[in-house]
Amino acid sequence: MQAIQSKLSVHAVTSYLGVFKEPRGLIRLFQIIFAILAFATACNGRSSTTLDYGGKDDAIVSSWSYPYRLSRSAIVFTNGTILGTLSTSNDPKSPAEFFLFTSVMAMLLGLTFTFIYVFLSPLYRNNDLFPTLDFFITFIWTIFWLAGSSAWAQGVTNIRSLTDFDNIRQRSGICPSSTVCPDGSVANYGNLIVSVLFGFLNFVLWLGSLWFVFKETRFFKSYTMQQPQVQAPVYPDIGSPTMHPQSYTQSPVVMT
């Protein structure tokens, strides 16, 4: 009896995990992974730019990190004197926070729907409300990914322009030319650029999953049920024993 129960439980778990063999479940796993990569790289964009000033020991340094509030990122001289900030306007803080919100919520939504697919599969298939909510939430978050990635791409462009050597020279007030303040160490924008790529990749994943989620909704099922079923004509096999030759009988002619 225990062996039968164990086989049934293994069969149930296997059938539940079978959703990951479908595009609907497999794409959810990729959405979770790439959402984590998106917000991890966006948050890990800490870097700095250095300008040499006069002697070997003097330098002008400016550092920044998430949420990239460059209006509060100071330009500091070697002795600790604050020469200014990287920006007074056009702060990329809002795009960064919106992108992070979209990424974290996408991860949580992916985990939630994956849990429903695996542990509440009968309820998902028998209740039209769950597939409908799944479709509309997926549609909304597809738009969020497009808007968030586009805004964040512009935000990264602003970060690069506000933290380059020319802007720091201008805003420091003590560097009239590159001769006085030659270029020092260059900032690293690798994580920020990669986060933008992950953002648009997430948009593609969520856009692609719309079709597979839509196929589970009542809208798609009712549409397919209304389509006329065209049956192919069945031709009898000539060599089949079920075919019997037709017999023709001639009725007698009555002469009047």
Automatic annotation (TrEMBL):
InterPro entries (alphabetical): Marvel (IPR008253), Synaptophysin/porin (IPR001285)
GO CC term (a single one): synaptic vesicle membrane
Membrane topology of this protein: Multi-pass membrane protein
Localization annotation: Membrane
Keywords assigned by UniProt, alphabetized: Glycoprotein, Membrane, Transmembrane, Transmembrane helix
Membrane-spanning intervals of the chain: 25-42, 98-120, 132-153, 192-214
Domain MARVEL span(s) in chain numbering: 19-218
Main location: membrane
Family (UniProt): Belongs to the synaptophysin/synaptobrevin family.
Name under which the protein is recorded: MARVEL domain-containing protein
Organism: Adineta ricciae
